[in-house]
Design a protein that fits this description.
213 residues, alpha+beta, Jelly Rolls, 4-stranded antiparallel beta sheet, 8 strands
Length: 213
């Protein structure tokens, strides 16, 4: 028998034995892998964990709250909201276009009702009489007969005058009817008069209700 015939089978057997030993060693190493039960709690640090190997699902809520990326671009402007309701005002305005006063009579040509408070009131009007017009008087009044301001002026027939009356007014708490009103009156002694562009502007100077004894 030649040496070459003996050597070849022996070489094959040797390779097979080496492979079997390697497989057995790998199996033994696998059996000795460390599990979580064998690791002491809090003993691992960030250096022991492979970078980018943990996803957000394994992070606690506290850890997730610390994650913050770069600030994004501002978003588009939203649509404008609806206009709000008109708030309370301290200025009350009343206007009336025109009124006619019969011969030798008194007439209220403008009336403004106010809530309780202290007010500075300013009123204005234009007045014109017919050909037989005589002395006239206009008054700014509150309550039944409390005059705030008045003006008497002679007037020739057909003349037209502009008048302004002003004064302070107190509207008491609980006032009703005439007691809660400011009125503009005119008195004609003679011919019919036309009154135009009547305006009453009342500006509240305090929000506190006013009481009277």
């Amino acid at each position: 028998m030649s040496l070459s015939r003996i050597t070849t089978p022996l070489l094959k057997l040797t390779v097979l034995l080496v492979a079997l030993v390697a497989v057995g060693a790998g199996t033994a190493a696998a059996a000795k892998l460390i599990t979580g039960k064998q690791v002491k709690n809090r003993s691992l640090t960030g250096a022991d964990i492979k970078k980018n190997s943990l996803g957000p699902v394994v992070l606690s809520a506290a850890a997730k709250s610390t994650l913050k990326g770069a600030t994004g671009e501002p978003g588009a402007k939203g649509a404008d909201g609806a206009a709000g309701a008109t708030g309370p005002s301290d200025v009350f305005t009343h206007r009336r276009e025109e009124a006619t006063i019969a011969n030798a009579s008194t007439r209220t040509v403008a009336t403004q009702t106010l809530p309780p408070g202290l007010y500075q009131v300013t009123s204005s009007l234009n007045i014109r009489t017919g050909a037989g017009g005589k002395t006239q008087q206009c008054l700014l009044r509150t309550g039944a007969a409390t005059d705030i301001a008045s003006h008497t002026f002679p007037q020739s027939g057909g003349d037209r005058d502009t008048l302004t009356l002003a004064g302070a007014v107190t509207i008491p708490a609980g006032a009703q009817g005439a007691d809660a009103q400011v009125r503009l009156l005119c008195i004609v002694d003679g011919d019919v008069a036309d009154v135009m562009n009547m305006t009453i502007v009342s500006t509240k100077t305090t929000n506190a209700p006013v009481t009277t004894e």
